[in-house]
Each structure stands twice: as structure tokens, then as C-alpha cells.
Design goal:
The complex is a heterodimer.
Chain A lengths: L3 E6 L5 H13 L4 E6 L5 H5 L10 E6 L3 E7 L2 H13 L3 H9 L1 H8 L3 H15 L11 E5 L3 H17 L4 H13 L4 E7 L3 H16 L4 E9 L6 H9 L2 H10 L10 H32 L4 E5 L7 H13 L4
Helix pairs in contact in A: 1-13, 3-5, 3-6, 5-6, 6-7, 6-8, 7-8, 7-9, 11-12
Chain B lengths: L11 H13 L5 H7 L10 H6 L5 E5 L6 H14 L3 E6 L4 H6 L10 E2 L8 E6 L2 H12 L2 H9 L1 H7 L5 H16 L4 E5 L8 H13 L2 H7 L1 H6 L4 H18 L1 H18 L2 H13 L3 E7 L3 H16 L4 E9 L9 H12 L1 H6 L20 H6 L8 H38 L5 E5 L8 H13 L6
Parallel strand pairs in B: 1-5, 1-6, 2-4, 2-5, 6-7, 7-8
Antiparallel strand pairs in B: 3-4
Helix pairs in contact in B: 4-21, 6-7, 6-9, 7-14, 9-10, 9-15, 10-15, 13-14, 16-20, 17-20
The chains are: A alpha/beta, B alpha/beta.
InterPro entries (chain B): ArsA/GET3_ATPase-like, ATPase_ArsA/GET3, P-loop_NTPase
Protein name (chain B): Anion-transporting ATPase
Pfam family, one (chain B): ArsA_ATPase
């Protein structure tokens, strides 16, 4: 099991949720995981129903069996100041740099520097050991940028390494890249059973592979429960309206004759079933496309009550059941 | 429609169970459910007058990723074109399917006419190529020798190929160009899929102020500064900084930055001026912002931030497009009653009792099951003469239909609550709801359909 688990996915597929559930799942049975957020949206704090997190590693949840999940929202500016402090003992000069706009420059504009700082921080956490020589975190889960940018984000160290041909950033980039391209890392892609996210997942996988970054699993999120099966859907097309009306009436929903309450329900209910059938067919198609990708495929259910903390634990349990941790 | 469990004493248990579910779940009565779907306290956004108004020159669609922003932009563009305007849609990163839906296999940096539109207008579409746009800016403002030097600079190559802010900046740049050409009646812009929608507003300023700012002056003109009196402090700061940056990035990179910035600066300084001009363009009366969202917590939270931010920046917000809203033609049947009814049908004990047309008697709606007295059941014979297992499979199907409906109603009420939370915070924002489609858009007809739904202002019920 790779110790750095990167979770990406098209916007709107719930990659932050999946990353958080994965961190919980990996923490079960006394393990300690670090969940890092690199896009400054404080999505993790919202998920775990805590206040916005400052730039520090803090325990955010306890997993079944005594495990712990820590969280860190990486702020590139603070990470850079941190870094400068660590290597150059800058002190007040760091603030001066900030005033001059150098920090802003470095983290916003400078090619890839921002991304080196973000990935670098995650890799540092992966490698960090305590005094007894044991890893501080068993796993680091990264809530990464979306599929469209993930390869560039992870590969950015290559670009920086090309630009900054010498110097500490160069060395740092090289070190980070070694971790990212090793089996220590797995990049998972979250998708939905819809055309565009599936297409983007397929494209993302080819890009990751071309950059020789280790692709992990495909996780289909928010899978709707199968309410009607293939046989039901066949019957929907042939069933007599009157029989459905009678069944509704028998169930206690009013009269089945023309104008009766049950009768009035028949058309809307059959219409909803037709919509369901159309989506069902589309989902089956997309599932087939995903299967073709030849990667381990996992499905997480759509939570009927919407996403909350309890739901997060539910998804974590599901991930464990499916062998992701 | 009042539940009367007492009517059927033998099923008091079922009624109790149904009641327990009723209390456990969100208590909603049928009329409430119906009322809830009406946009009563909210202003409805009327899209057509906005698109038809010759004064509207720019429509900006913004919002979180994955809410159908690009599709909305394309549908609005098509609708405006088919209502007679000459439109260009500037998309940032359209899915292949969407480009294909406009009959264009690969969109590029030049507007292409979309074929097959109806009516007197024209639709053109293009996709932002940020590197190409950046190159064009350089080529347009520098002599060929300088331009070549800039284009070959590694710092420039990285910057233009898409690091934080470049895409947003180039989107603004392109918008400014398109508007300056004055070739189109209406420009519909889709915003970049940023980590936050707010980047669209921030990044250009950041890039502009950086390229035009103090740091760059320090980096590029140390000699000038050193010559002035009273600059000793700054000089210390500068050498500390170039020293540190040099150590950090490696001397070569710093040199590249310096030559790059020098070249940029002398050839077409005033990045900030350009950024400011585009910014003003966005505040001008001809511009309309539409915030796009889906009825989900995160998307609407992002939308709320954006609404507040636009107000703070004095940007003209026209309204909120709420995509993928679900409706139901049977909104009067609550999730709880649908589930209770489904259980009645799935309970074999009850099915066995039902040989005939129990429902044919004019029973009032009840929560619990109320199988008819035996005498009635015996009289009624099956109209269709269908065998028992066929009836059973219809029962099974009907139970499925009811469960499907219950899911739909739960989804509906969740979406409702999410939307209400937004409108409570921003009652001034006009909203248009676009119903969820089961599949993706594949052609102009699909886009046209979405345009019609956008203009209808509220979901159509079957």
C-alpha cells in the first residue's frame, strides 16, 4: 500500500469527500494518517464540521479502533516562509520579503514554485520520522487539484528542475519527484457515472501514464442505488397504465378510475421511471468505459441524506470493505 | 386527504410504523411540498430580455467547477444568436462533447462560425488557448527580434503555459480583445475552472501588479536605485532579496527572470493598465454576470461568496442560474406516503388478500394499508384476467415506482433546503432554475433545449 495517496477528480465529483473518507479508512486500527489540502478552500474543515484550520497539523478525527486523522491545509505563502526559515534562518527578513511582494511573486507567479512547495510539504510529511525512527504518519492522503491539472501539478517539479538548474529548489524538486514517481505514491481518480467526468478520467489516466506517474484506482462516487432493475425497466415499457393504477390504489393511494387519486399518479410515476431508465442505460455505458481502463474500480454510494460527518464514516467503512485500506 | 388509521384497525401497526417514519423523517405535508417548489419569495431571472437588449454586450458565467458553467454559456450564446444577435462564445476548457455539440471538433483560439443555427443571428465559438493568446500579445507589442527573445525565454515559456493566474489573465485579455474588435453584438464568457471562482477576479490584478510592481523594478533596475539618495535601505532590501531568491531558485533562473521582465517591460509595459482596463470593462453597464450553481451545498456556498464579491467590486450581477434542479409531476405525494404504499405492495400478506380491485372502492387516501374487507375482495374479479404472478410483478414494479418517487421527493426537499439557505442570504438575487436532464448534451438541439429551459424560468413538469 503506497504511503502517499493522491486523490484527484473532475470538479463536482466529490474528491475532497473521497480523500477524507480514505484518510479515515486508512487510519482504522490504530494507524495515523495526515490529510492535506492544497487548494486553500478549507473543504476539509467543512467536511469534518470544524472551524477553518490554521497552517498546522491538527488532529481532526478519531477512526474506529483508535486511529487518528490529522489535517493540514497547506498555505503556499506560509510554506515558503517556513522553508526559508528552515534553510536560511531569515527571521524578520521574511516579513520584509513579504512586504516587497517577493513572497507573493514566488508563490503566485514563479513557475511551479507554488506547486513544489505544496507537493514538497506532502512529501516531507511522508518521509518524516520520529526519534525512534518510525514514520510519524502511516499514510498521507492529499486532496489534490482536479483531473485536468493533476499531471501538471505533480509533474511540476520536473519543470522547476529544468528551470532552476542548480540551487536548493532544484534539489528539493528532484527529491520530491523521486517520491512522486515511486511506488510510494498512488494517484486515484474520482469520477461519477456521467459522460464528461468519465471522459476526463480516461484522459487524466493517459496523461499520468505518459508522465510516468503511478496511477492507483478509479473511484466512482455518488452511485445511485438500483431502485428498478433491468426486468422492471422492461416491464415499464409494456405495462398497462390501468394495472399500475390498480396497484397504486391497492396500496392505499386512492381511486384507480379516471380522475381518481391513484390514476393521476400513474403518468408522473411512469415518466420518472422513463427518466430513470434513460439514466440507467447511460450509467451502464459509462461503467463499461471505466471497466475498459483496466484499473481497480470502486463504487461509493450516493448518501440519501446528503453529505455529513456520519456519512463520511459510512464511506470510510465502505472503502475498507472494498479493500482500499 | 386526512390520514385516518383508525379506519382499519387491523393495520394499526402499519399505520403506527408509517407515523413513526413520518416523525423521524422531515415532517412535510403535501401542500408544503408543493408550495416549496414555487419560487414565491424569490425573483425569477428572465433571461430573454437580457439577451435581447442591444445594450448587453458581455455576459460572464462564473461559478464553481462541475456545475455546467460551460454548457450554460453555450446554451445562452445559441439562444441569443437564434434571437437575432451576432454572438461569440469564449469557452475556457470545454469538454470535447460540448465542442462537438456545436458542430466543431476542436475549438481553437479563433472564433469559428457554428453551423445549423436558426434565425437571423450568428453564433461563433472559440476556446481560449492561453499560450497562443500570450504569444499574440507579445508579438503584437514587441518588434520581431524582441518578441523572439521573449518567446524563447524559459521563464516566459513556463509562465505562458499555464501557472496560477495566467489562464485567468489571458481570459481577461482575450475578452478585452474581442470587445475592442467590436465585431460581435454579444460576447458570452465562460470562466476558468479555478480552485476558487474568485481567482477570475483576483489573478489578473495580481499578475498585473506583479509585472508592473515594485519587485520587478527592484529586480530590473538596481543601478538606477543605487544612484538615488535615501535609497540605501531599499538597496539593502534588494540585495538581500536578489541574493535570497538567487540562492533559492538558482542564479540562472533569476537571470532569466530579469531578462524576461526587462524585455516585457520595455516592449509593452503597463500590464496593470491593461488589467485595469479589462476590469473597468467588467464593471461597465454593458456587462452582465451570471453566477452558475447546482443545488448542492458546496456549489451554492461558492455562489454566495461570488455574489458578495461581485457586489463588493461593483460588478453587475444579473442573477443565479441554478442547474440540475429536480422536479416531480407527483409533488403532492410525499416521500413518506410513497414509501408506506410501496411497503404495502411488497408485503406478501397484503398482496395475498388482494385478489381483486381493492382500490376500486372510493377509498380516501390513507397512510396505512387498508385492505378491503373480505366480502368486497371476493366480489371483484380481475378485469384483465391476468395471472397472479403477472399481478405480482406489476405490484413489484409499482412498489419500485413508489420508491423511485420517494427518492425523488427526498432529493427535491434537500435541493429546496439548500436553495432556501442561499436565497435567505441573498433575497435580492434573481434565480432561474434549470431542470436536470438525464443525459449529456450532444448537439445544437440539446443546447437549444437548455436555452429554452433557461428562458422558461422554472422547471417544466411533465
Amino acid at each position: 500500500m503506497s504511503r502517499l495517496q493522491v486523490v484527484s477528480g473532475k470538479g463536482g465529483t466529490g474528491k475532497t469527500t473521497v480523500a477524507a473518507a480514505l484518510a479515515l479508512a486508512l487510519a482504522t486500527e490504530g494507524k495515523r494518517t495526515l490529510l492535506v489540502e492544497v487548494e486553500g478552500r478549507q473543504g476539509i474543515a467543512q467536511l469534518f464540521e470544524t472551524e477553518a484550520r490554521p497552517y498546522e497539523e491538527r488532529k481532526i478525527a478519531v477512526a474506529p479502533g483508535g486511529g487518528e486523522v490529522y489535517a493540514l491545509a497547506i498555505d503556499p505563502e506560509l510554506a515558503l516562509l517556513d522553508y526559508l526559515q528552515m534553510f536560511y534562518k531569515l527571521g524578520g527578513a521574511g516579513r520584509a520579503l513579504k512586504k516587497l511582494g517577493a513572497i507573493d511573486f514566488a508563490t503566485t507567479i514563479a513557475p511551479g514554485l507554488r506547486d513544489v512547495l505544496l507537493t514538497g510539504k506532502a512529501c516531507e510529511a511522508v518521509r518524516r520520522k520520529d526519534r525512534s525512527g518510525r514514520f510519524v504518519y502511516d499514510y498521507v492522503v492529499m486532496d489534490a487539484p482536479p483531473t485536468g491539472r493533476i499531471t501538471r501539478f505533480l509533474n511540476v517539479n520536473d519543470e522547476v528542475a529544468g528551470l532552476a538548474k542548480i540551487g536548493p529548489i532544484h534539489n528539493q524538486a528532484q527529491a520530491v519527484m523521486r517520491v512522486l514517481k515511486s511506488p510510494e505514491t498512488a494517484v486515484h481518480l474520482v469520477t461519477l457515472l456521467e459522460e464528461m467526468p468519465v471522459q476526463e478520467t480516461a484522459d487524466g489516466i493517459s496523461e499520468l501514464r505518459a508522465a510516468r506517474l503511478p496511477v492507483g484506482r478509479v473511484i466512482v462516487n455518488m452511485v445511485r442505488p438500483e431502485v428498478l432493475d433491468a426486468a422492471d425497466l422492461e416491464l415499464v415499457r409494456t405495462v398497462k397504465r390501468s394495472s399500475v393504477g390498480q396497484a397504486l390504489s391497492a396500496a392505499g393511494l386512492g381511486g384507480a378510475r379516471g380522475g381518481g387519486n391513484a390514476e393521476k399518479l400513474v403518468d408522473p410515476l411512469l415518466y420518472q421511471a422513463a427518466e430513470y431508465a434513460e439514466r440507467y442505460a447511460l450509467e451502464q455505458e459509462q461503467r463499461a468505459v471505466l471497466t475498459e481502463l483496466g484499473l481497480p474500480l470502486h463504487e461509493l454510494p450516493l448518501l440519501a441524506e446528503g453529505m455529513d460527518l456520519a456519512g463520511l464514516y459510512e464511506l470510510a467503512t465502505e472503502l475498507r470493505k472494498q479493500g482500499l485500506s | 386527504m386526512s390520514p385516518d388509521p383508525a379506519e382499519a384497525p387491523e393495520t394499526a401497526q402499519a399505520a403506527e410504523a408509517a407515523e413513526a417514519r413520518e416523525t423521524a423523517a422531515e415532517p412535510r405535508t403535501a401542500p408544503e411540498a408543493e408550495q416549496g417548489r414555487r419560487l414565491s419569495p424569490v425573483r425569477v431571472l428572465d433571461v430573454d430580455p437580457l439577451l435581447d437588449d442591444p445594450g448587453t454586450r458581455i455576459v460572464v458565467c462564473c461559478g464553481a467547477g462541475g456545475v455546467g458553467k460551460t454548457t450554460t454559456a453555450a446554451a445562452l450564446g445559441l439562444r441569443a444568436a437564434e434571437r437575432g444577435r451576432k454572438v461569440v462564445v469564449l469557452t475556457i476548457d470545454p469538454a470535447k462533447r460540448l465542442a462537438q455539440s456545436m458542430g466543431i471538433d476542436s475549438l481553437d483560439n479563433v472564433p469559428r462560425r457554428v453551423k445549423g443555427t436558426e434565425g437571423g443571428g450568428e453564433l461563433h465559438a472559440m476556446m481560449l488557448d492561453m499560450k497562443r493568446t500570450f504569444d499574440e500579445v507579445v508579438e503584437a507589442h514587441a518588434d520581431s527580434e524582441r518578441a523572439a527573445a521573449i518567446l524563447a525565454n524559459p521563464f516566459y515559456q513556463s509562465l505562458s503555459a499555464g501557472f496560477a493566474g495566467t489562464q485567468e489573465y489571458m481570459a481577461m485579455e482575450k475578452l478585452g480583445q474581442l470587445r475592442a474588435k467590436d465585431e460581435w453584438d454579444l460576447i458570452v464568457v465562460d470562466t476558468p475552472p479555478s480552485r476558487s471562482a474568485l481567482d477570475f477576479l483576483d489573478a489578473p490584478k495580481r499578475l498585473g501588479s506583479f509585472l508592473d510592481g515594485r519587485l520587478i523594478r527592484l529586480l530590473t533596475a538596481p543601478a538606477k536605485l543605487g544612484g538615488r539618495a535615501g535609497m540605501a535601505f531599499l538597496n539593502v532590501g534588494m540585495s538581500l532579496m536578489t541574493g535570497t531568491l538567487g540562492k533559492l531558485l538558482g542564479g540562472q533562473l533569476l537571470k532569466d527572470v530579469q531578462t524576461f521582465v526587462a524585455a516585457m517591460d520595455t516592449t509593452f509595459g503597463g500590464f496593470r493598465t491593461r488589467a485595469d482596463a479589462t476590469y473597468k470593462l467588467l464593471q461597465a453597464p454593458g456587462t452582465a454576470f451570471l453566477v452558475v450553481a447546482a443545488p448542492e451545498r458546496d456549489a451554492l456556498r461558492e455562489a454566495a461568496y461570488f455574489v458578495e464579491r461581485l457586489a463588493a467590486e461593483k460588478m453587475p450581477l444579473m442573477g443565479l442560474v441554478l442547474n440540475r434542479v429536480h422536479g416531480s409531476g407527483a409533488g403532492g405525494l410525499s416521500a413518506e406516503r410513497a414509501l408506506a404504499a410501496a411497503e404495502n405492495l411488497e408485503d406478501p400478506r397484503i398482496v395475498d388478500q388482494r385478489d381483486g380491485k381493492a382500490g376500486l372502492r372510493n377509498s380516501p387516501d390513507t397512510y396505512g394499508s387498508s385492505p378491503p374487507p373480505a366480502s368486497e375482495t371476493a366480489v371483484a374479479a380481475s378485469e384483465e384476467g391476468s395471472p397472479a404472478d403477472e399481478e405480482r410483478s406489476v405490484d413489484r414494479l409499482t412498489a419500485g415506482l413508489l420508491r423511485l418517487h420517494a427518492d425523488r421527493m427526498q432529493l427535491l426537499s434537500r435541493e429546496q433546503r439548500t436553495r432556501d439557505r442561499f436565497t435567505a442570504r441573498h433575497p435580492e438575487v434573481a434565480v432561474v432554475e434549470v431542470p436536470a436532464l438525464p443525459g449529456d448534451v450532444h448537439d445544437l438541439a440539446g443546447l437549444r433545449d437548455i436555452g429554452a429551459r433557461l428562458a422558461a424560468g422554472r422547471p417544466e413538469e411533465p
